[in-house]
Amino acid sequence: MKNIKRRIAFNKFWDYVFWVTGLLSTLVGLVLLFTLIVDLFLDGSGRLSYKFFTSFPSRFPEEAGILSAWVGTFFLMIVTAFAAIPLGVAAGIYLEEYAKKNWLTDIIEINIANLAGVPSIIYGLLAMGLFVYFFKFGESILTGGLALALLILPMVIMATREAIRAIPNSIREASYALGATKWQTVWWHIIPYSTGGILTGIIIGLSRAIGETAPIITVGALTFIAFLPTPPITSGFPFISFKWLFDPFTVMPIQIFNWVSRPQAEFHINAAAAGIVLMIMTLLMNGIAIYIRYRFRKKIKW
């Protein structure tokens, strides 16, 4: 009896040690993150103004702005989202619901998991050879967006598969029992129920893409640009233009890197302000995803 009590006390002690260790580890990460964010805001918040958002980069730090950088980032994220989301979700649905479980799908699954861990510079080199030289897209927004789409595609596929895998088989069986086809079951039941997990994976992928620098520099993004891409909406018929896809561009991470590399302290303040804007853009993306996920879950009744 005493041995059992000692064993229980010993296990409780190590449970407590593990709890304290986990709590301290979490607090260390949170404190460091909070310190970095506070330091970023203290340095850059004073530089944020309407002029900062509507001015082009300049060799004079007090006149420099992020207009071309945030516009380029916005257009780049549009291309990335339109290229990666449909392909990634469709591939995840196919692999989880339609593909036969054999050696070929096992190889595909292993390669997708491995691609998620490949350094981003490799995707930049792949995009340079494929989109710049082979397809002749040039050093354009389209090339940069497709490069980032390749980067986050494995993440979207894996998130889609995990979200679909979490759906109980009873939902599929009930749908089939009522006479629904495979596609009707997927479209009306599997996708709606798994939307929350799929959106989470998509936003994680886009959040990574919006901060990437290596693949964008590799495909030819400019470090200094004082003009905007062609407007996507025109005054004449057909009122929509796709010329902006082939325009040169820059993005927020490159602009931040350019300012940080300058010796003047004023440029470092500009970099901190641009970092705040980039962080807010990421948080807005996550907030939109959380809201959409909440709306979908509210409509679904288990």
Compose a concise summary of this entry.
The chain is built from 11 helices and no strands.
Task: Give the helices and strands, then pairings.
Blueprint: H1 2-44, H2 50-54, H3 67-98, H4 103-115, H5 120-134, H6 141-165, H7 169-177, H8 182-210, H9 214-218, H10 252-260, H11 265-299
Helix pairs in contact: 1-11, 3-6, 3-8, 3-10, 5-6, 6-8, 7-8, 8-11, 10-11
Which descriptors apply to this entry?
about 300 residues; mainly alpha; MetI-like fold; about 0% strand
Give the beta-strand count: 0
Give the rounded overall mean pLDDT. 86
Task: Tell me about the largest β-sheet.
Answer: none
For this structure, what is the CATH homologous superfamily of the largest domain?
Answer: MetI-like
Name of the level-1 CATH class of the largest domain? Mainly Alpha
The number of helical runs is: 11
Range of strand content: under 5%
Task: State the secondary-structure class.
Answer: mainly alpha
Helix percent reads over 70%
CATH architecture of the largest domain: Orthogonal Bundle
According to CATH, the fold-level topology of the largest domain is: MetI-like fold
Shape: globular
The radius of gyration over CA amounts to 24 Å
Are there runs of 5+ residues with pLDDT below 50, and where?
Answer: none
Distance between the termini: 47 Å
Order of helices and strands: HHHHHHHHHHH
What number of structural domains do the residues give? 2
Description:
The chain has 302 residues and is mostly helical. It has two domains: 45 residues; 250 residues, MetI-like (MetI-like fold, Orthogonal Bundle), CATH 1.10.3720.10. The chain is globular. The model has no long low-confidence stretch (mean pLDDT 86).
